[in-house]
UniProtKB/TrEMBL annotation:
It holds the Pfam family Arylsulfotran_2. GO terms for molecular function: transferase activity. The chain crosses the membrane at residues 12-36. Keywords: Membrane, Transferase, Transmembrane, Transmembrane helix. The keyword Transferase applies. SUPFAM superfamilies: NHL repeat (SSF101898). It comes from the Bacteria. This is Arylsulfotransferase (ASST).
Amino acid sequence: MAKKSIGERLGPVLFVASLGVITLVYGTVATTRGWFPAPQIQLAQRTLMDISHNWKNDLALEPTRHLVKPGGGDVATDRGLEGKPSGTTKEGYVLVAGLNEDQDEAFHSVRLYDGEGNEVHRWPVHYDLLDDEHKPQNVMLHGMEVFEDGSLVLTFDAGNAIARIDACGKPMWTRKGSFHHSISRDGEGQLVTLLEEGIAWLDEDTGEITHQLDIVEDLAEYPGGDQRATFDIRTRTPDNTEQEVRYLMDPFHPNDAEPLRAEMADAFPMFDAGDVLISLRELNLVAVIDPQSGRMKWHRHGPWFKQHDPDFEPDGTISVFDNATGSGATRILSIRPGEDNVETLFSGSEEQPFYSWRRGKHQLLDDGNILLTEAEGGRVMEVDSNGELVWQRHMAWDAESNLIITEARFVPGDFFTNGVPSCSSN
């Protein structure tokens, strides 16, 4: 057998080495630009991590996807209501949406507490009656809107339904679709909520979709062309400039859409009744848009970070739940559209811990207090205008965990037409 030359012996080695270099370079570029197979590998890694942490949840053994470490710093093992409602909340009811500790009754529930802090009603939420594609333990009850007759409209993150249920939890209507996060009534018989990457209007009596806006098609690509830069922050410019701009994964993450009701419109001269206040978490953007055209009438990037739940307020300001993700201290901020100044109404601190790195709600009350939903701490609390704690309620699951709370809502004592909701009245 003839002896191989050095070139012949090195050939395979150089070939393999070249393949290694090419693979390394391609892998780096693919990861940066999201080319195959980087997204598939990342998805597989996330899926394996999720399964390893939540297999008990998926087998309906323990709701691990819905449990959090108790908020508020050092807390007692025996958790529940601390302090007493006063002022505004003393004169009405507080609804709390989240997981049901009695899993045999229903996986999710909405509780109603009176002015003494006593539970006076509970809506069982049977997700399996609304959608046969997803298991109840794998969806998150999130959006909640309440009606005078004691019924509720609900949305579910990672689910495929929006539904109106009566006081006993029986579905009144159901609409399939990826509805998520918030729900608001416009005072004119319409519900405003989020559907996939857009905003949807539904008839509150039937659930029929009456109007939709898509964030890319109607806001980012608004015909005037002057809004594109605001929404293209999370995009990549293609090598071929004739190609469409490609958006990154979850480029906007819309998490709130609230209509300006007619009775509050005079406080906002820049806007009209029906205009919609939106929150896009990934852009740190809060904006008010025309519901028909998608034109932005006002917008602001920050100073909030990964914010939720901007609200129109009667004094002409907009309040914002600033998650301030990564800071350890969530804030409630206030801004008047058209002005630069941003006021801090409340902030978590060492003396008064308050932090929800994601999710969360707030409600400014008539007496100047603030009702707070610390979603990732499983805690509802009320603070006064000086930031002092009035009362708090831990939604305890066991000695170490609280249940995630997605929303707490105050309604006045005369809100319900027939008094406290009950199944006997249905």
